[in-house]
Specification:
This protein has 112 residues and is an alpha+beta fold. The chain contains two helices and six strands; from the N terminus they run E-E-H-H-E-E-E-E. The protein has one domain: 2-Layer Sandwich (YaeB-like fold). Mean pLDDT is 86; it is low at 1-5. Belongs to the RelE toxin family.
Length: 112
């Protein structure tokens, strides 16, 4: 796969001026999603899905309030769907922090 590997905590972007950060758990989630995707669907499809996730991260960086804040979760986070996954993120003055990338079927409500 030719796409960049996720780096926890460092600003990431493929476009100037559009940045987001990943937590270590989010970076691990992306590595797992990619490895599972390669195993289950092949490298080409996994690469396309990885690109789709990255495009969603960039859209959230451009429009951080795209998803509503979920106050019923602790801490309150924003949740945005992407394919079969849910992007859990925080947005504030410093930008967007991708907290986790969870599968939509996971019980992630108690632990974003």
């Amino acid at each position: 796969m030719t796409s960049r590997r996720p780096h926890a905590g460092k600003p990431v972007s493929s476009r100037p001026g559009v940045t987001y950060r990943l937590t270590a758990k989010a970076a691990d989630d992306i590595r797992r999603i990619t490895a599972d995707g390669i195993r289950m669907f092949g490298a080409a499809q996994a690469s396309r899905y990885h690109a789709r996730l990255r495009q969603s991260f960039e859209a959230l960086a451009r429009y951080p309030e795209l998803a509503r804040e979920r106050h019923e979760l602790t801490p309150p986070v924003r949740v945005h769907p992407c394919g079969s996954h849910i992007i859990v993120y925080l947005a504030d003055q410093s930008g967007v922090l991708i907290v986790r990338v969870r599968h939509g079927h996971e019980d992630w409500g108690n632990e974003p």
